[in-house]
Amino acid sequence: MVIIKSTLMVESIESWLIMKKSENLLSIGQMSKLSGASIKSLRYYESIDLLIPAYIDSHSNYRYYTYNQIYLVGIIMFCIELDIPLQELKQFIKDKSHINYLDFLHYSKKQALDKIDTINKGLAFVDMLESQVDKTSDITLNIPFTRKLPSMKVKTYPINKNDLDHFSIIELFVDEIYDYDLLNVPMYGLLTLKNKDTSYYAFLQSPNGDLSLKKEEYLCLQNNFSMIENVEDYFDIGNKDYLAYEIEIMKEEININELTYECRVLIK
Asked: Residue 139 falls within a domain, yes or no?
């Protein structure tokens, strides 16, 4: 009887200590509510030794956390939003009770700034692509129109008439195109010059180009096929000399199975 009474007394004392200890701690449910992390996530953070509960009740196996750990959960969730592998955060855990908190914050901040920089570059690239979209809504395929175009310099690469292929240009220029900043992707396409004879070129926009295209009003035509091989079949040129170049145009709405080409002609 004495033994039973002593056992009950010990259990009673332990229960009282557990109760007093948990008064200043947060249950896993409370931590979930205050931090915004699901209970499943909190258990996962514990399973990878990233968020160790401050106290685990040996009888009920309930998890309890300190108020300070709310901020750690916030940082963990922030890092997840930034796609930072959680295993990288473990380098700041000293033991089950200690964390290099300031280093943890500095690391998270640096990762965030790097991500912001990446996002800003991505947005600038999107803006650049948007600026290249042909937003002219009254253009009809195979109907000539005029454009006032700015001057630009281009590098020219002589090619045979039989090699007038827009896809081969990409292979020809791939190294030079990707040497440019993504925010300044150069224009490239096919070009033809008629003086006494007709010459054909692939061209790439370049400040060190060998040919200057003047700021002029060009006669233009859009089609779903290349016209550069037979410019005189599509434009009323007569026997005059001319410069013509052709590029791929991105429209506000595109058909992924078709390309839109714009041929631009300057009659001399």
From this structure: no
